[in-house]
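Batch queue: ligand-bound targets. Current item pairs a single chain with guanosine-5'-triphosphate. No template structures supplied; prediction is de novo from sequence plus SMILES. Inputs echoed for audit trail.
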Amino acid sequence: MVSTRRQQAMVEAESIKSFEEKVPPKSLNLLIDQYFGENEANKHISFQDEFMIDNADPNKSEISTQLNKVDWNVGIDQIRLQQERIISHKGTVFNMLVAGRKNVGKTTLINSLFDEPITSASKPGTTCLEMKRFKIVDSTTHLNLTVIETTGFGDNVNNSYGWLPVVNFIDESMRSYVYQEEQPYRNNVVDRRVHICLYLIEPDSLNVLDVLTMKELSKRVNLLPIISKCDILNLESLKDFKTRLKKICEVQDIEICSFMKTYDEYESIKKLYPLSTITSDEMIPGSSKLGRNYKWGYVAIDNPEYSDFLELRRLLINDNLVDFIKSTEQYYETCRAELLKTRILKSKKSFQDNEVTLDFENVDANGLQNYKAYAIFNKSKMDNIMVEWCPKFIESQVKIKRKFNKVIDIEENKFMEWKKALIEKQTRFNNAIELMYKDIDLLKLECQELEYQVVTGRNTNPENSTTLVGLHFKR
Ligand SMILES: Nc1nc2c(ncn2[C@@H]2O[C@H](COP(=O)(O)OP(=O)(O)OP(=O)(O)O)[C@@H](O)[C@H]2O)c(=O)[nH]1
Ligand SMILES: [Mg+2]
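Prediction returned. Tokens below.
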């Protein structure tokens, strides 16, 4: 009721806008106050910032209001409960990637985190990623958890692109989500976007592959390096390793949870990193806790003296799970925008006249034209872009180019030498020809001399002759 009256007042205020110069904002407020009058219902609502009209620029005139609840319950406190109901009904999708070299302790960590044998020891083979989905249910809600574990990572003789399958999976999960969102029916969208990546490193065994992989991952996902099996080192050495790891990450531009930088929790995460854990599948006899068995006894995996396991679980699940999801969604928006822009820009070449009229300098402003462009730009062309973007492809392209240039250089050198030899030969021939011409000239002169002798009947002594013929004979 009140809001309807208020809306009415706003409509009238809009009509007054044309007299803005004549009616200053204060008198406009007065006018609205008169309209409302001192009314019982109005007492429950205080109006803040009343009607603000920007007189400076008539084209930008705006009317804004802000309602401030005083002592009247309109029920907005129920919105939170309604949202909670929706979330508990729908559940939460959370995708976690656990990466690291063979035997680093990935499976044991995953199982310890969820107190369940979620994944089993990997079978030998060439698979690069193993994905398992779970529904973890509690009294109020459920978590649709997907755990992706790398297998056989770093096992090849040549590991120069060992990180590529993992990175491809992350990129592809983003692309596939864009395609799925474009479909008319989106009830069964499969979300594989990775919300957090735990990268496990064994103490004192950080290698180039680890560094390169973390570097690539940190650009694409919320990355959290974890030192696994930290019981291998004593506390002093562990501290040293942590400092070294931090330094390496800093130098190599490996950012921790890079999508969370604008979040309040970011600093606390940074302070905790790098976390080191002890994990185990074994229960401590006579206790409900998981622990690692040593000759001298058991250590509970959540013993804060030796392991940051509890901190990790708190950080991952209790405190920041939703933040990881939200920040990944922000990153997804950037990927989506880039993908769609690239599609439009790349499709430029395939347009026929009059098909679409896109402003390629300003692809954001094309509206409906973009859709036409997408239709023309089919999947096979997009696949070509994917291949072009692939770092392996780029590297092999560079290698082939280098090889090609080498061959060209060799052939060019050969050609230059051949050309040089040819020119030398030509110069030699030219000189010989020149000599021959000179001989011909002298012979011609000799003939003339002989003709002259025949005609005049005079005989010249070749010994004393000063004629050219004489010179020729002397030569
Ligand atoms: N000392 C010690 N050993 C551990 C720890 N966590 C796991 N392990 C042991 O490390 C071995 C490998 O553990 P997994 O969890 O199977 O390692 P993984 O990375 O999943 O191995 P793959 O899947 O084959 O790549 C097992 O024998 C575990 O018992 C730990 O915190 N400390
Ligand atoms: Mg495993």
